[in-house]
Amino acid sequence: MQRVSILGSTGSIGVSTLDVLARHRDRFEVFALTAASRWQTLRDQCLEYGPRYAVMSDPRAAEQLRHALHEAHSAVEVLSGPAALEQVAACAEVDCVMAAIVGAAGLLPTFAAVKAGKRVLLANKEVLVMAGNLFMAEAKRSGAQVLPIDSEHNAIFQCLPLTVSLGQGIALPQLGVSKIILTASGGPFRDLPVAQLGQVTPEQACNHPNWDMGPKISVDSATMMNKGLEFIEACWLFNASASDVEVVIHPQSVIHSMVEYVDGSVLAQLGNPDMRTPIAHALGMPERLVSGVERLNLVANARLDFEALDEERFPCMALARQVAQAGGTMPAALNAANEEAVAAFLANRLRFNDIARVIARVLEKFDSTEPADLAVVQSADACSRRRAQEVIEHLGGKQ
């Protein structure tokens, strides 16, 4: 019986993970569930899955959850705060950790899981964007098994030789790989005239044509920053340089990514756009588990289109590519500026096409260093957020 902690259980990845686990109760036990402030959802999950611990980032929400579970005569122990997140990620009794907290908030608990040598199902791309070098070095030291959950990186992993273990520093040429090809749907504004992007609303940006995601990730998909973060993440996961990774638009989201080999072969992983597929793959590896995902109908999905990425339409992708090449703490600055800009857009304080402008202005004045530890990464994050807020105030005042 494997014990699983889910960091971010009330989000879309967390909910999908619980759905897969529920199909295999003879193999998996939920050890801990965590959330930021949605205590009612976490209460319902606790009553259904009976974890040993429930952790809330917000102490007030934790108190409400504690009271609700007491009323329901539940034995689940409620904890709160950042230290508790790290505790349930690194606990000796835990075998597997789903790292699904969105954004920089997931950095420390995910790092704690890797440091403790867990099987880490990595759905938080920002961890590698902010501290990829430190994260992968720690995985190598501790023997942690890092398995990608983003559908694109999971697809790449499935297309690599079965013997590959991520984080061990194997160069792509040693595997006969010439290129990694990340696919992108293009989001909801792939065909919208560029001149109209300034009028896009948060509701429109969150209406992704293929995937059901939270607001932050949905906006990132609309700006293509999501693909930019995945680009940086791919470089760290697969020991690749920026020139080894290509991004192509694939509107149907059926091919999740591809690997091109030196002999001319291109291997692709296909499937319906449902996150339960990569989750089940990572949970069961090396076995294959039933995921609950509807089978792909090749006849109904006979048309598969591909387009070149237009970086003028999607300047966030261009910024991410530049940052991937620059390295140092630049990726942490990019991520921080993006999180602040997206939050301002969702709060109607910033126009959609100003998100990239905020990020670019933060990067222009950012002094990058090589991060020696997480404290350096966190300092870069905090500094970039302050600068982003200044730029947001300036641009927001011009609306």
UniProtKB/TrEMBL annotation:
Residues 270-386 form the DXP reductoisomerase C-terminal domain. Its EC number is 1.1.1.267. Its cofactor is Mg(2+); Mn(2+). Keywords: Isoprene biosynthesis, Magnesium, Manganese, Metal-binding, NADP, Oxidoreductase. The keyword Methyltransferase does not apply. 1-deoxy-D-xylulose 5-phosphate binds at residues 125, 151-152, 185, 208, 221, 226-227, 230. Pathway: Isoprenoid biosynthesis; isopentenyl diphosphate biosynthesis via DXP pathway; isopentenyl diphosphate from 1-deoxy-D-xylulose 5-phosphate: step 1/6. GO terms for molecular function: 1-deoxy-D-xylulose-5-phosphate reductoisomerase activity. InterPro entries: DXP_reductoisomerase, DXP_reductoisomerase_C, DXP_reductoisomerase_N, DXPR_C, DXPR_C_sf, NAD(P)-bd_dom_sf. Residues 146-238 form the 1-deoxy-D-xylulose 5-phosphate reductoisomerase C-terminal domain. It holds the Pfam family DXP_reductoisom. It is an enzyme of class 1 (oxidoreductase). NCBIfam families: Dxr, PRK05447.1-1, PRK12464.1. Belongs to the DXR family. Catalyzes the NADPH-dependent rearrangement and reduction of 1-deoxy-D-xylulose-5-phosphate (DXP) to 2-C-methyl-D-erythritol 4-phosphate (MEP). This is 1-deoxy-D-xylulose 5-phosphate reductoisomerase. It comes from Gilvimarinus gilvus. The lineage of its organism: Bacteria, Pseudomonadati, Pseudomonadota, Gammaproteobacteria, Cellvibrionales. The gene is ispC.
